[in-house]
Structure formats: C-alpha cells, structure tokens
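Incident log, support desk, overnight shift.

02:14 A customer reports that sequence design results differ from what the structure should imply. Their input is reproduced verbatim below. On-call engineer (initials T.W.) acknowledged and began investigating.
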C-alpha cells in the first residue's frame, strides 16, 4: 500500500506545485482530492513556467496518471482551457487524466454569486471569486450538479430545475441577472461532450492501479489554516485541505495513507482577509514579497508576508499526522538575511505555545520571536518541536533545486 499525502501547513502557497512535481518522478499517480480552480500550483520545468489549477501537478512527467476526485469542484471553462494548454506541451491526456463523475461543477451562477456577495459585504472573505464557496454550499445543500450528470441528458434536465430555481433567487437578491435555464442546460451538455473521454470512477481506477503496485500521491490544495474546520474560520476556504480530506475527497481508506508530507514555507504568506499574527506590513513585508515573487498564481493579488510562525506549523503537523516535512523558499530567506521566527504567543498576559481554537483569540495574539543564526537553526527548532524530520528543503524555483537533508 503506498499512498503519500502532500498537504500545506500554512495558508496555502507553500510551494506545493513544485513539491509535487519534484516527488512525482517516483510516483505513478497523482490525485487531487479537494479545492478547485482557486488553487494555482506553479511548476518551473525546462526553463518554462506552468500553473496547474485543476489538473494534478505531477502531469508534466509523461508516465504519471492524474485523477481528480469527487472532493474537487470543476469549473468547466477553466478545466477545458487547462487541458488544451497542457496538451500543447505533453500531448494527448486521454487515458492519462481522469475525473470522477461525482466531482461537483462550478456553475456560472456560482461565480456570479461569489463575486456579488463579496462585493456587497462589509466583511468580505477575500475569496478568489472562482465560485468555490457557493458550489460547496450547494454540494451540502443537495443542490449540486455533478460531472456525471452532464452525460445524462434527461436526468440533467430534470435535476437542474431545483438548483436553478434556488440560485436564481440568490443571484437576483444581489441584483444580478440569472442566465436562462436552457442556456445553462446547453452549456452543461456541451461541457459533458467535451470531457466525456476523461470521466471514470476514481475508486475503481485507483483500486486497479493499486493492485498493479502503483505508488500514489495525494495532492492537497490550499493549506491547513484555510481548512473549513481547522482554519481561521470564517476566513477559510470551503473544503478540507488536511490529510483527512483525502479520504473523503478521493475515497481512500485512512489506513492506506502511510506517509504524509507537510509543506511549509520558511516565512509565512496569506492572500485574502483574516488574522495573520506574524504579518510584516512595512518594508520587510515588501522585501519578502519582491524577493519571493509573492503574488497569487490564480488572481495575481499581492500576498501578505511575514515571519515563519512555528506554533502554526507544529499544530498543523498534529492535525495532519505529518511523517515528513518539506521546507520551501529557503533561498528567499537567505537573501533577506534575517532568520526570525515566532516560537510562541502572548494573549492577554498569558503565554501560548499553540495557535488558539477560538476565532476571536487570533486577533489578540502577540508573537514571541526568536532570531536564529541560520535557516538550518530554524529547521532544527521545527524538528525539535514537531518530532518530525525536515527531509527536503527547496532552495530555488528550478526542478532540481531541492536539498535532501535526510534519508527518505
Ligand atoms: P475561496 O477558496 O476562493 O472561497 O477563498 C477563500 C480564502 O481562501 C481566501 O482567503 C482565498 O484567498 C484563500 N485561497 C483559496 N485558494 C487559495 C490558494 O490556492 N492559495 C492561497 N489562498 C487561497
């Protein structure tokens, strides 16, 4: 049994795209299990940059099979475009890329609602406006349309009515205009036709590959502090980026996951609103942003930047059951030349060693900092606190710029 999950231990953008591409050479299959086109996983290979939104990041390797599980939400336009773009580089993806018929579809009205709701709110979340939240709301509200439905004309017509009527009310309540029912129905049928060669039951596919001895990577998007339960609620995404999310998002029994690699950046970034105790709003934040190229891979938004928050990484390692750690962007911190990290917090005069489980308490946290001699010093402190080895360190955007610190 060889399932390895890759998860982010911060607010996403830890460099998971590069990590997956790096590790995928030793794997046969990469599975996306949650999130949607809000993710932007960057890979730099052979002098070219690629950004994966929905397609699993390891697919630049010719032999790697990609599977998109039911936990993912599929934006039809983004998906079709991503397939066409990637096929220009790696050739036909049919027979190598699969999407589970149970994955939910981001409908045009979900994108509309995300944008309208964010614009009308005095406390926006700062979403990517890709319609992810409304799609997952409809998933839980039993109002979702799934990839498989687009391949069954009569069923689709019958079952689109309820979600359509509900969402029409929502769109109109924000002053938006809902496209006609027939237009949406035709749009979905057209999408179904385009993607039918890629649709397959992911559970059976993985079972078959597993039987042949395949090594399987589970690709998490976003990060632990954007998790719907364990993140800085309500400033989170609407899925479960933690290792447990892989079991429900791809249909994998928990005991089969025998390795969990937690990825953390050696400083911290965040896009969107919400608390960020170690944020540096001044010159230092700007310096990290420029040196690290910290702009959203999906939205282009400048990322908020600050020091590494070790308690966050330690707590996230617990939630995910991390077995190895992968640190990224050490070259950027080396260029900054200061090796500072939070090792605890103060809250109303009390000392805390872990981030709080109370949303309100995040706002009063004062980080307690320590300055280390080198990046290595920070890594040793993270290892001491987590009891887990930092096996890999990324020191540049190129594929090969990874130091294997420990034996795998
Ligand atoms: P949503 O996922 O678009 O609903 O956005 C919810 C929050 O998650 C916002 O703060 C986004 O900026 C953040 N977010 C969503 N996807 C990513 C990602 O891939 N990287 C970093 N932040 C993300």
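02:41 Re-run completed on a clean worker. Output:
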């Amino acid at each position: 049994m060889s399932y390895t999950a890759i998860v982010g231990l911060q607010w996403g953008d830890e460099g998971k795209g590069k990590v997956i591409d790096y590790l995928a050479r030793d794997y046969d299959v990469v599975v996306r299990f949650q999130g949607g086109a809000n993710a932007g996983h960057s890979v730099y290979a052979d002098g070219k940059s690629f950004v994966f939104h929905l397609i699993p990041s390891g697919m630049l390797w010719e032999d790697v099979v990609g599977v998109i599980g039911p936990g993912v939400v599929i934006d039809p336009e983004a998906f079709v475009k991503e397939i066409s773009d990637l096929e220009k580089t790696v050739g036909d993806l049919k027979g190598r890329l699969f999407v589970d018929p149970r994955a939910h579809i981001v409908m045009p009205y979900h994108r509309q609602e995300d944008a309208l709701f964010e614009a009308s709110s005095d406390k926006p979340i700062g979403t990517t406006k890709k319609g992810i939240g409304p799609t997952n709301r409809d998933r839980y509200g039993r109002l979702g349309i799934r990839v498989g439905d687009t391949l069954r004309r009569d069923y689709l017509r019958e079952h689109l009515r309820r979600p359509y009527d509900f969402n029409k009310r929502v769109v109109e309540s924000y002053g938006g205009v809902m496209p006609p029912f027939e237009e949406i129905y035709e749009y979905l049928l057209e999408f179904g036709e385009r993607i039918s060669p890629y649709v397959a039951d992911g559970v059976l596919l993985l079972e078959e590959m597993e039987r042949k001895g395949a090594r399987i990577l589970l690709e998490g998007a976003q990060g632990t502090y954007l998790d719907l339960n364990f993140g800085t609620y309500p400033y989170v995404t609407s899925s479960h980026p933690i290792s447990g999310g892989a079991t429900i998002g791809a249909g994998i029994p928990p005991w089969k996951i025998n390795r969990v690699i937690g990825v953390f950046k050696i400083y911290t970034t965040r896009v969107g609103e919400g608390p960020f105790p170690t944020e540096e709003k001044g010159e230092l934040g700007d310096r990290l942003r420029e040196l690290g190229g910290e702009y959203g891979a999906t939205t282009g938004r400048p990322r908020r930047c600050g020091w590494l928050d070790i308690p966050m990484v330690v707590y996230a390692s617990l939630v995910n059951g991390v077995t190895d750690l992968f640190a990224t962007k050490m070259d950027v911190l080396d260029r900054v030349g200061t090796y500072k990290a939070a090792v605890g917090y103060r809250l109303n005069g009390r000392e805390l060693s872990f981030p709080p489980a109370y949303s309100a308490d995040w706002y009063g946290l004062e980080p307690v900092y320590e300055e280390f001699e080198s990046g290595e010093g920070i890594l040793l402190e993270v290892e001491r606190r987590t009891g887990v080895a930092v096996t890999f360190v990324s020191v540049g955007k190129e594929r090969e710029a990874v130091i294997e610190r420990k034996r795998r």
